[in-house]
Design goal:
about 350 residues, alpha/beta, Quinone Oxidoreductase, Chain A, domain 1, Rossmann fold, 2 domains, seven-stranded mixed sheet, 17 strands, about 30% helix, binds zinc ion
Length: about 350
């Protein structure tokens, strides 16, 4: 679109964008709508989720300052309706209710061509590397579109991205008939509790330093929820697992101490799936926790395309996921400041905004 002519009202949209290299986001009522390339779809966004990543972008921490281009529309968790399709799009049509895989890749690298597109080397992410979904319209390639099943609500569909992280972690680790420690019960950790329960974990233990979140983890099905600052909780896990330790560790906190504690709780030969991102290099004893332990360590990035999405849909349709207590608040987009404060203060867990 030409920017030197005055935009007509139907070529502009509401958006939240990163207006400067500092804290906050700015509302813009007249940002130009995205224009579809031949293989793109334009989606009219209905509901979005605020992610921990969006909090980093809001607060403009070291990570955000090094990664986020100033000027982009942020946000990557959404559900909406297809508004318009590019000239070469064949699979979708306007009016379909959809979400999308926010990791965009060309499909030409080794991993994309061998079933591992979630770790493609040329990945760019909506709302992080390019314009995202905190706007009336978002553009994604048709290959990234995920049609939403009619029996899944907008409220749940708006959380596919983080729920997919939880499903990917749980399903990669394999929790059926296994004892599991979920280390860190933020949004995705709490989602992992209900996913692990639905996936047949025999006994779920959780640790965190946030008592209300620990109480919620118990409500969602954790057998024990430990305050990681209390001494003796690792001994208790050991006692409750016949002296061996848990079969599976799901690391969701990224906290330095949590890595050491989590691996201490893991039995020899166990499996650890790591999703939490440490803010700096860990003080971690590889000899003790990995090599001598003979454990398997899995790095978890994004969602498997599309295996995780099918698993997530089936789990949601099974009715066994309990997400009502995790999705706590909804605000109109214009009240984004309140929405972000609700999330940042910890009063809200998953906070949604409506367009
Ligand atoms: Zn997210």
């Amino acid at each position: 679109m030409a920017t030197d002519t005055k935009p007509s009202p139907d070529s502009v949209m509401r958006s939240l964008y990163k207006h400067h290299a500092g804290e906050g986001l700015k509302f813009d009522a007249a940002r130009p709508k995205p224009v579809a390339g031949p293989r793109d779809v334009i989606i009219r966004v209905k509901k979005v989720g605020i992610c921990g990543t969006d909090r980093h972008i809001w607060q403009w921490d070291e990570w955000a300052a090094g990664r986020i281009p100033v000027g982009i529309v942020t946000g990557h968790e959404f559900v909406g309706f297809i508004e318009e399709v590019g000239s070469a799009v064949t699979k979708y049509h306007p009016g379909q209710r959809v979400s999308a895989e926010g990791h965009i890749f060309s499909g030409t690298d080794y991993n994309s061509r061998t079933g591992n597109a979630h770790i493609a080397s040329d990945t760019s992410i909506i709302g992080i590397d390019r314009d995202g979904c905190f706007a009336d319209f978002v553009k994604v390639p048709e290959d990234n579109v995920w049609p939403v099943h009619a029996d899944i609500s907008d409220r749940l569909a708006a959380t596919f991205d983080p729920l997919g992280n939880a499903v990917h972690t749980v399903m990669s680790a394999g929790v059926s008939a296994q004892t599991v420690l979920i280390s860190g019960v933020g949004i995705i950790g709490l989602m992992a509790v209900t996913v692990a329960r639905a996936a047949g974990a025999s006994r779920i233990f959780c640790s965190d330093v946030n008592p209300p979140r620990l109480a919620l983890a118990k409500k969602l099905g954790a057998a024990e929820a430990y305050d990681a600052r209390d001494t003796g909780w690792l001994d208790d896990i050991r006692t409750q697992t016949g002296g061996e330790g848990v079969d599976v560790l799901l690391e969701m906190s990224g906290a330095d101490a949590a890595f050491s504690q989590g691996f201490r709780a893991l039995r020899n030969g166990g499996r650890a799936a790591l999703l939490g991102l440490p803010a700096k290099q860990l003080t971690f004893d590889f000899n003790e926790h990995i090599i001598f332990k003979g454990c398997t360590v899995l790095g978890i990035n994004g969602r498997r395309v599309w295996e995780t999405w099918y698993q997530m849909e089936k789990l949601l349709l099974s009715g066994r996921l309990d997400l009502d207590d995790i999705i706590t608040h909804e605000y109109p987009l214009e009240e984004f400041e309140t929405a972000f404060q609700t999330m940042i203060s910890g009063e809200g867990i998953k906070v949604l905004m409506n367009l």
